Amino acid sequence: MEIKQISVFLENNAGRLGEVTRVLAGAGINLRAISIADTADFGILRIIVSDHEKAVLALNEAGFTTRITNVAAVEIEDVPGSLARVMELFQKTNVNIEYLYASLEGKAGKAVVIFKLEDHDKGLKIITDNGLSMVESF
Q1: Where are the beta strands (DSSP E) in 18-89?
Q2: 36-50 pLDDT, tens digit each
Q3: Structural domain ending residue among the three candidates 33, 50, 69
Q4: Less Cβ around it within 10 Å: N or C end of the chain?
């Protein structure tokens, strides 16, 4: 199973991230995971939300440029070395990780890591074949 991630392209100006969060709040959308990467001129906000279709509609109506991407949300033990074991598995199977970030979600003793994989289908197969648990929804 895969999760839908929304990428929002932002000018690197004061208040733009606040505008995004206000639009989502006004639409009744709950953030489940968030990451931002920036350059001198722009940023890419990556979010996973409670309702991606409603969020994209609200953001687009507010003038934001968005894109939907499939990502894998993998649940791991919240102990030292858990992420290293997953990373080693991807390395051994030649699955390139484009980027990753952690989610706001998680059960006690667990962490959820969001992976954007270069070969998404191969990555999903590796995850399931090796008994890793994927989060199917937030």
Answers
A1: 31-38, 42-49, 65-77
A2: 988 777 889 999 999
A3: 69
A4: N
